[in-house]
């Protein structure tokens, strides 16, 4: 029996891809949901409280209850809002936040009876460039949300968020250039391979300034404390999403947390050797690579939460100053250092 | 080559689909009881003085313009960084000149106060 | 060229950082404040007028509800005014109790201020930490007066009752194991004085802990240094008092300059700032908490060594003991007259102040000889501070409005009265 050509050529691959994507997105959503519980629990313990402990055993069903509540809540559409833009904005927030995961590799290429298998949805050569392009789309969601709601708090918040996110994107981009200069590839998987060996081969040591700049810029990109002026609760109440409620709000929320995980996993991949164990010897190599990757991701997620419990909020102009006058010069200097070192015997340090 | 982008296309549809389905579900199951007070723009409990869509501080736009310059710079850097090893000293010098010009511009902005906020 | 307009923004009353019910109309030029116009009065309850229709003793609880963060100093000012007009002799032990509870209130107030201020600036953990310690002091309030917040404990002529010999203890429940309970009740085995002493041993370390989180924190410094600066001379002109004035470097403390109760016997220092910015005021208040602990410690030592009466024996202003009422007709009549008609205050007028945690809190009392005030005017410490809102925020950014509001330590109960 011959399958029609279009089924064999298009429908089957698409179906297979869809299965893969669902296998990624479903755990991701679950991770986002449980990140909120972990956040509340962790910050709770830092603040001498216990966090949520009523829904389900020890509060572990809390995110389900939260999700249901948001689903059953009325979404408000303010009279003076620009309805179309108002609805599209959360979609433009969640879309890129999920789409970016298409190029994230979760482990090395495995040899299987069916050939080589790489745990990544889209094996793209310029995955880093793609990532940079997609994540910058998230800004549109924020700006449109603030503009459409027609509330002054929302518009101040979205203006701040827009300026802040683009500023830190530059610092982030320069930090990435340092990584590319060291790895000579735009493929995230190959960047990880270039770091194979013990932890002294990982890029966080030779590229230490860029590592710090990248992660802190990531915190600023996701609008988390201490950079959360776009939704700074005590100044502009909730910033760009002040008018959103119910599911429209939930989408912003999901996007923010998905972005947090994305920044963490990216930092782990680019600077902390991805799925490589810290020491390439026996007890460490028994643990599979993806587990190492997730552990490293969890470490950075912990930093996100730790920051939130510890720091006061920056003022808006201080954020801009940090981004433009500290981070960008630091990355420029370090790029030059790498460039010069590349021409000398020192280049071994960076490769 | 291009087929490696097919998953991204499918992913795009699914990513937006997740959002759309969530919103649709919300419309189906959530109550809708609009009233004028609920739908008025939030401004800390008082009537807003004026429309929120006013002219805005020019510095936000300045940041946007600076961003375009620097983002383009990054875009030029990417391919250069990938083939850095093959280019050798010539490549480095060429990029150093390019970077030098931009740094001069950056210093000019800095001194002009385009990065100041108060 | 088109005219560039500033835009106007309502900040409060329904706002997370409005400290209750402040409505601030802000005129913004981008992010920069061009004008800040506080609209007060949303919490106006007419305390002064209400007091004119109540006997002196009935007016007292209204003072709890003025500045509901530092309750007992409010009552203290009123009691001082009434005592001055009627020339009531206050037993020494009552004065020590008052001083001790004034300082406990100061710590309570500064702890709430610290938590709220830090949270306004974004450090939310601080809030939970300070509330942990507030809880202990509120237990002290409760043990002495029966209420955690609105104590209604001082009376013209002393305090309502002597400090209790036992502390209320935590009871077993399914949430706390035996070991937990033992730890939680460790301080509560003895009297209230023992409990407070244990607190004075424990608290200075906590202040160090708060300082670790904030004092050298770069972000905290960036957010507070140079914000809401007021030079000493200007602060005097604006009528600032308390930490707001001391932060600008003026050493003015009523506990020192016009000692009332037994403050003249206390050994303590008055911290002053130098720059008059939010950071200096923060440091001043932190140091005041340490000094308060010292004063409390001295009171504890004295109170333990000197038992005695805490109420005046003049049964015209303080009810006689229960036991006496069972036997003495005169005592019963005194009791009845006091709680129906109240006591009369000779004609005259007076202005009495206390060093309230927020500044000078004064009661101006005019009596025409009746059993209720002819006129009562309250000087709220926060009101002149609030009036300087515009001056302190102009030229700063939107986020600094919140810092300035936090550093003023405003409570609308007393500002709106």
Strand content of chain B: under 5%
CATH arch. level architecture of chain B: Up-down Bundle
Number of helices of chain B: 4
How would you state the average pLDDT of chain C, rounded?
Answer: 88
Q: Order of strands across the widest beta sheet of chain C?
A: 1-2-3
Estimated structural class of chain B:
mainly alpha
The largest contact between protein chains, plus residue counts on each side, is:
A-B, 86 and 68 residues
- What oligomeric state best describes the polypeptide chains here? heterotrimer
Task: Give start-end ranges of low-pLDDT stretches of chain C.
Answer: none
Output the number of helix runs of chain C: 18
What's the β-strand tally of chain C? 8
Number of separate domains of chain B: 1
| Average pLDDT, all residues of chain B | 80
Number of strands of chain B: 0
Main sheet attributes: strand count, strand direction, barrel closure of chain B: none
Helix % of chain B is 55-70%
List the secondary-structure elements of chain B in sequence, H or E. HHHH
Q: Specify the CATH homologous superfamily of chain B.
A: NADH:ubiquinone/plastoquinone oxidoreductase, chain 3
What is the fold named in CATH at topology level of chain B? Methane Monooxygenase Hydroxylase, Chain G, domain 1
Query: What gross morphology of chain C would you assign?
Result: globular
Structure description:
The complex is a heterotrimer of chains A (351), B (118) and C (417). Chain A has a two-stranded antiparallel sheet. In chain A, α8 (208-221) packs antiparallel against α10. Chain A starts with a helix and ends with a helix. Chain A contains 14 helices and 2 strands, in the order αααββααααααααααα. Chain A folds into 2 domains: 1-72; 76-349, no CATH class. With 351 residues, chain A is mainly alpha-helical. Chain B is mainly alpha-helical and 118 residues long. In chain B, α3 packs antiparallel against α4. The longest helix of chain B is centred in the C-terminal third of the chain and has 29 residues, at 84-112. The radius of gyration of chain B is 25 Å and the shape is flat. The model of chain B has no long low-confidence stretch (mean pLDDT 80). Chain C is mainly alpha-helical. Chain C has a 3-stranded antiparallel sheet with strand order 1-2-3. Chain C has a 3-stranded antiparallel sheet with strand order 6-7-8. Chain C has a two-stranded antiparallel ribbon with strand order 4-5. Chain C has 18 helices and 8 strands. The mean pLDDT of chain C is 88. Helix content of chain C is 49%, strand content 11%.
């Amino acid at each position: 029996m011959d399958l029609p050509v279009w089924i064999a050529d298009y429908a089957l691959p698409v179906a297979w891809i869809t299965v893969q994507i669902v296998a990624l997105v479903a755990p991701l959503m679950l991770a986002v949901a449980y990140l909120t519980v972990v956040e509340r629990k962790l910050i709770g313990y830092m603040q001498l409280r216990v966090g949520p402990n009523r829904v389900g055993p020890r509060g572990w069903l809390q995110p389900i209850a939260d999700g249901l509540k948001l689903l059953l809540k009325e979404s408000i559409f303010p009279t003076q809002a620009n309805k179309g833009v108002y609805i599209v904005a959360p979609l433009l927030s969640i879309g890129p936040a999920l789409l970016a995961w298409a190029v994230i590799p979760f482990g090395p290429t495995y040899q299987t009876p069916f050939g080589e298998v790489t745990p990544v949805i889209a094996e793209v050569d310029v995955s880093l460039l793609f990532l940079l392009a997609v994540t910058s789309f998230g800004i549109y969601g924020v700006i449109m949300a603030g503009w459409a709601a027609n509330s002054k708090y929302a518009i101040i918040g979205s203006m701040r968020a827009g300026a802040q996110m683009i500023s830190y994107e530059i610092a982030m981009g320069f930090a990435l250039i340092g990584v590319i200069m060291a790895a000579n590839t735009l493929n995230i998987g190959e960047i990880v391979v270039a770091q194979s060996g013990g932890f002294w081969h990982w890029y966080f040591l030779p590229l230490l300034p860029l590592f710090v700049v990248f992660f802190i810029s990531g915190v600023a990109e996701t609008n988390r404390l201490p950079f959360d002026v776009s939704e700074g609760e005590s100044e502009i109440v909730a910033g760009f999403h002040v008018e959103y409620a119910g599911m429209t709000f939930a989408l912003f929320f999901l996007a923010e947390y998905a972005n947090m995980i994305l920044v963490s996993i990216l930092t782990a991949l680019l600077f902390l050797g991805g799925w490589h164990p810290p020491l390439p010897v026996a007890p460490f190599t028994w643990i599979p690579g993806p587990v190492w990757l997730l552990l490293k991701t969890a470490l950075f997620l912990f930093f996100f939460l730790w920051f939130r419990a510890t720091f006061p909020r920056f003022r808006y102009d201080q954020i801009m100053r940090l981004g433009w006058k500290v981070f960008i010069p630091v990355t420029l200097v370090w790029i030059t250092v790498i460039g010069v070192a590349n021409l000398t015997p020192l280049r071994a340090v960076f490769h | 080559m291009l087929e490696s982008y097919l998953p991204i296309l499918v992913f795009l549809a699914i990513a937006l689909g997740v959002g759309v389905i969530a919103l649709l579900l919300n419309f189906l199951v959530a109550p809708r009881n609009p009233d004028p007070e609920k739908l008025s723009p939030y401004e800390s409990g008082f009537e807003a003085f004026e429309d929120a869509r006013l002219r805005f501080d020019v510095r936000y736009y300045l940041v946007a313009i600076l961003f375009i310059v620097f983002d383009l710079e990054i875009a030029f850097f990417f391919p250069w960084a990938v083939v850095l090893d093959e280019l050798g000293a010539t490549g480095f010098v060429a990029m150093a000149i390019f970077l030098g010009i931009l740094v001069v511009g950056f210093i000019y902005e800095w001194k002009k106060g385009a990065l100041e906020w108060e | 060229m088109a005219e560039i307009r500033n835009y106007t923004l309502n900040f409060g009353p329904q706002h997370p950082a409005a400290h209750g019910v402040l409505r601030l109309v802000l005129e913004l030029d981008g992010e920069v404040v061009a004008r800040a116009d506080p609209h007060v009065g949303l919490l106006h309850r007419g305390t002064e007028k209400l007091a004119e229709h109540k006997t002196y003793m009935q007016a007292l609880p209204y003072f709890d509800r003025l500045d509901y963060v530092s309750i007992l100093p409010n009552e203290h000012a009123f009691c001082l005014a009434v005592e001055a007009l009627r020339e009531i002799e206050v037993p020494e032990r009552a004065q020590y109790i008052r001083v001790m509870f004034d300082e406990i209130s100061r710590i309570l107030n500064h702890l709430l201020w610290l938590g709220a201020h830090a949270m306004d600036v974004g450090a939310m953990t601080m809030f939970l930490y300070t509330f942990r310690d507030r809880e202990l002091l509120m237990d002290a309030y409760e043990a002495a007066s029966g209420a955690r917040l609105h104590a209604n404990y001082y009376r013209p002529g002393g305090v309502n009752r002597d400090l209790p010999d036992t502390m209320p203890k935590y009871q077993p429940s399914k949430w706390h194991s035996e070991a937990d309970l033992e730890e939680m009740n460790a301080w509560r085995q003895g009297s209230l004085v023992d409990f407070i002493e244990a607190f004075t041993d424990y608290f200075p370390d906590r202040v160090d802990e708060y300082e670790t989180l904030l004092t050298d924190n770069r972000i905290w410094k960036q957010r507070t240094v140079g914000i809401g600066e007021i030079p000493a001379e200007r602060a005097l002109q604006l009528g600032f008092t308390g930490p707001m004035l001391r932060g600008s470097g003026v050493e003015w403390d009523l506990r020192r300059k016009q000692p009332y109760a037994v403050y003249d016997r206390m050994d303590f220092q008055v911290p002053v700032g130098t720059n008059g910015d939010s950071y200096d005021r923060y440091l001043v208040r932190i140091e005041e908490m340490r000094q308060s602990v010292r004063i409390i410690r001295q009171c504890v030592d004295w109170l333990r060594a000197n038992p005695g009466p805490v109420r005046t024996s003049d049964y015209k202003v303080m009810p006689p003991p229960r036991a006496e009422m069972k036997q003495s007709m005169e005592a019963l009549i005194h009791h009845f007259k006091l709680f129906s008609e109240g006591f009369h205050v000779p004609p005259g007028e007076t202005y009495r102040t206390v060093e309230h945690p927020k500044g000078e809190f004064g009661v101006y009392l005019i009596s025409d000889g009746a059993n209720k005030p002819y006129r009562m005017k309250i000087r709220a410490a926060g009101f002149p501070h609030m009036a300087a809102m515009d001056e302190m925020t102009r030229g700063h950014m939107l986020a600094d409005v919140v810092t300035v509001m936090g550093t003023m330590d405003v409570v609308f109960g007393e500002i709106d009265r």
